[in-house]
Amino acid sequence: MAEIVAPRPASTTLLLHDRAQGGEIEVFMMVRHHQIEFNSGALVFPGGSIDQGDKGIVARPELYAGGAGLDESALSFRVAAIRETFEESGILLARPMDSQRLIDAARAKEIEAACRGPLCEGKVTFLDVLAANQLQLALDELIPYAHWITPEGMPKRFDTWFFLAAAPPDQLGAHDGKESTDSIWVSPREALEGGENGRFKLPFPTTRNLIKLGRQGSVRAALDEARGQPIVTVMPVMTRLNGGRQLRIPREAGYDGELFEVGALG
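The structure assignment produced for this chain is given below.
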């Protein structure tokens, strides 16, 4: 029997804003570079693996707000969510040390211009960015939304927490041009239609969460709904079926079904 690969802890953020016209939510999504090993060419939410630097920030509680009652693991997922969001979109969920308000768009743009490139290149750490700019991460802006673990038997596995967050006003976001080659604000409906007509490549968990998110007509409604829901861990059980794959997920997780036929997990 092949050895089961341990899943790598990771975080993903669904950044939301209300469409100016039309009464729909929009979510920030990116197209992964075709040379990226995992989910190459796919339309995804910002996210990535937890790293040691995230744990270093957890050890410095003055650098974040909203972590009361959370253990080191839960805090690490949230710190990673905000760091990866900044690296992959330029959007920063943080406050000045002496303020209760999120940094404004102009200040966020200055920090992005000075720090995003060096951070992505490994020349500075996220802790360096926070300390140099006297910032405190706004962990309280993240609402847990879903918890997915890649099925056993896959060569690369992730233990991923999905978070919802309202995008800070006027922080528009943009892909980095390296790990991702394009980015859009898109409604769940439009993203799903793109997956069906071939415009987008959507991984299975992304599709399920877009369908779930599309039930809500506003950012406020989506956040309020998420706050009141328990999180049921989803680790699809995968079997081969007619040359494709059949995936079973827990019905109580609140998605659009329990059994799905897919050509590939993605």
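Interim note for the steering committee: The mean pLDDT is 89. Residues 8-230 form a domain with the Nucleoside Triphosphate Pyrophosphohydrolase fold (CATH 3.90.79.10).
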